[in-house]
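Customer escalation, tier 2.

The customer says the design service returned an amino acid string that "doesn't look like it belongs to this structure." They asked us to rerun it and document both sides in this ticket. The original structure tokens are below, unchanged.
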């Protein structure tokens, strides 16, 4: 394996997998692949947990015997980026429901932006993601209601936290894979350097 090439896995049990794969394929020095088995998980230098339905993905993680190995790899320092449902999976607490991986010190509210605005887009400047503007696409998105002291807030929208990082874990409640902007991918790849 060429050590200069980064092997980026996309958890491919359910959700917006193809969109993440297509975005990764536009980045130089990246080999993107889908992860459904422990062997594939072990080959990843970094992993994306896509948007989708968090309860479904959590069930499938157990059915595919990936739940424990995934926890172990993230605890071992593998960079991971949870988009939307992926963020919910990583959260220590989910308001009103049992949580899943419980690795990141955040409390999230599912479908937080409400029915009137289930899906919407905004373009904002997020200094952490680069000098230009970053388009944010939200689909029945969660937000971070509260975060522990180890969590760095990267982006807020209308007073709510929508992107954050704790060591090797990055979360966004929006979907960069549905835009053609690669800012957040570049930020994530730097976490894998
Ligand atoms: N509402 C979904 C959930 O709770 C997340 C939505 C998404 O990933 N676009 O899992």
């Amino acid at each position: 394996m060429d050590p200069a090439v980064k092997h980026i896995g996309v958890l491919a049990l359910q959700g917006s997998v193809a969109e993440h794969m297509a975005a990764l394929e536009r980045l130089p020095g990246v080999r993107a692949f889908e992860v459904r088995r422990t062997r594939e998980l072990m080959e990843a230098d970094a992993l994306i947990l896509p948007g989708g339905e968090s309860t479904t993905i959590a069930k499938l993680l157990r059915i595919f015997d990936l739940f424990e190995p995934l926890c172990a790899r993230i605890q071992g320092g593998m960079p991971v980026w949870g988009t939307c449902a992926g963020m919910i999976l990583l959260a220590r607490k989910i308001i009103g429901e049992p949580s899943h991986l419980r690795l990141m010190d955040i409390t999230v509210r599912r479908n937080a932006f409400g029915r009137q605005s289930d899906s919407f887009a905004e373009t904002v400047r997020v200094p952490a993601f680069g000098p230009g503007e970053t388009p944010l696409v939200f689909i029945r998105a969660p937000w971070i209601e509260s975060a522990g002291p180890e969590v760095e807030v990267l982006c807020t929208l209308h007073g709510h936290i929508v992107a954050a990082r704790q060591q090797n874990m990055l979360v966004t409640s929006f979907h960069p894979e549905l835009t053609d902007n690669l800012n957040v991918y570049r930020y994530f790849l730097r976490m894998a350097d």
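Tier 2 assessment: The sequence is consistent with the input. Residues 6-191 form a domain with the Rossmann fold fold (CATH 3.40.50.880). The chain is about 25% helix and 35% strand. Sent an explanation to the customer and offered a walkthrough call.
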